[in-house]
Amino acid sequence: MRRAPDEVIEAAGCVLWRRSPVDEALEICLVHRPKYDDWSHPKGKLKRGESPLHGALREVEEETGHTCAPGAPLPTVRYVASGRPKRVHYWAAEATGGRFTANDEVDRLLWLSPTAARHRLTQDRDKQLVDALLDALHLA
Q1: Closest by CA position to 43, among listed 101, 119, 129
Q2: pLDDT computed for residue 79 by the predictor
Q3: Which residue positions in the chain have pLDDT lower than 50?
Q4: Is 53 exposed, middle or buried (0-12, 13-18, 19+ CB in 10 A)?
Q5: Closest CA to 123 of 99, 91, 93, 88
Q6: Residues 105, 71, 96, CA angle at the centre, nearest 5°?
Q7: Can you tell me whether residue 3 is helix, strand or coil?
Q8: What percent of the chain stands above pLDDT 70?
Q9: pTM over 0.90
Q10: Nearest to 85 by CA among 2, 12, 31, 4
Q11: Long-range contacts, stretch 47-55, CB < 8 angstroms, 24+ apart
Q12: Which residue from 12, 36, 22, 34 is spatially nearest to 111, judged by alpha carbons?
């Protein structure tokens, strides 16, 4: 079934974080998508009938190999992708386990400090989510 050109693409993802195994500092997970050659937070389109939170958790696991515990909702990001409006719902999510394996969608994963994550992210809209995470964790 084809979508109408003005129908909103619904997607969801997480700003995935953990405490460093070395020094307990906050680290944020970024993924590299070779199709777009960009660095972003794990996210993806929702399946038919899927809730945004369920889709966000599914996408994190598919793209990063990690399970996570969802926390506070973060700002919803809106933009135009391939000529269509897109809405991405985000949550803060703490990594609870897992291991990354490169795949067709994501070929690299990095755990970075918030400052390094801001510099590595390709899109400004994704950089703003780092600040939203820090606010949600009361670290700003």
Answers
A1: 129
A2: 96
A3: none
A4: middle
A5: 88
A6: 60
A7: coil
A8: 96
A9: yes
A10: 4
A11: 52/10, 52/12, 52/89, 53/12, 53/89, 53/91, 55/11, 55/12
A12: 22
Q: What is the pLDDT of residue 6?
A: 72
What does the block give as tokens for 52?
């945004």
CA distance 63 to 139: 26
Alpha helices in the chain (DSSP H): 52-64, 114-120, 124-136
Q: Which residues sit opposite 95 in a β-bridge?
A: 68
Q: Which of helix, strand or coil describes residue 6?
A: coil
Q: Which domains does the chain have, with CATH numbers?
A: 9-136 (3.90.79.10)
Contact indicator for 140, 68 with CB cutoff of 8 Å: no
Beta-bridged to residue 112, according to DSSP, are 28
> Token digits for 41?
């937070």
Q: How far apart, in whole angstroms, are the C-alpha atoms of residue 29 and residue 43?
A: 12
